[in-house]
Write a structure and sequence with these properties.
By secondary structure, the chain is mainly α. The protein has eight helices and two strands, in the order ααααααααββ.
């Protein structure tokens, strides 16, 4: 009876170790990811460096670390490595899209100012989301050559109320 119990305990221990081993092999480096998410980039990078085999998600976070370190070529390499491991990995696709965002924001701001001067009427300007999605800062700014129509200036005072005729009947909305 004692031998049977020992045998069951050994099987339980072996099974537990196998589950733990399988879990550690299939999961990303969660500790490093947690360090990254908490803002400790240095420790996260060290933890990723200790990992024997990086998976797609690990490459994504290493790419984000490289972006924070302003090493965009290295970030691109990590995102591409993640996509090589898992071509359907959305995170690495988002990482590559992040790298394709405009690098020269000053040029965009300058173009927006020119665009506003060329199109002073707000109702005729592009939606900001459309402007960004269509990379409109690369478009030529065309100034209108037609003269502007004079706009009616509104007075600061409200119009004077009309006088009600003496023969007005408010119940029937009629003049007697």
């Amino acid at each position: 009876m004692n031998k049977k119990r020992m045998k069951k305990m050994k099987k339980g221990i072996v099974l537990t170790l196998l589950v733990a081993l399988f879990t550690s092999m299939s999961a990303s480096n969660q500790t490093a990811i947690d360090y990254y998410l908490s803002g400790d980039i240095k420790t996260a990078k060290e933890r990723f460096a200790q990992t024997e085999k990086l998976d797609a998600l690990d490459n994504y976070y290493l790419g984000l670390i490289s972006i924070k370190e302003n090493d965009l070529d290295k970030a691109k390499a990590y995102f591409n490595a993640g996509l090589a491991l898992d071509p359907n990995n959305v995170y690495n696709k988002i990482g590559l899209a992040t790298l394709q965002m405009p690098k020269n924001q000053k040029a965009i701001i300058k173009h927006v100012e020119q665009y506003k001067k060329a199109q002073p009427e707000k109702q005729f300007r592009k939606n900001p989301e459309t402007y960004l999605n269509n990379c409109s800062w690369l478009d030529e700014v065309i100034y209108s050559s037609t003269p502007k129509m004079p706009t009616k200036k509104s007075s600061a005072l409200p119009p004077e109320p009309q006088k009600i005729p003496e023969n007005y009947d408010p119940y029937y909305n009629l003049i007697k």
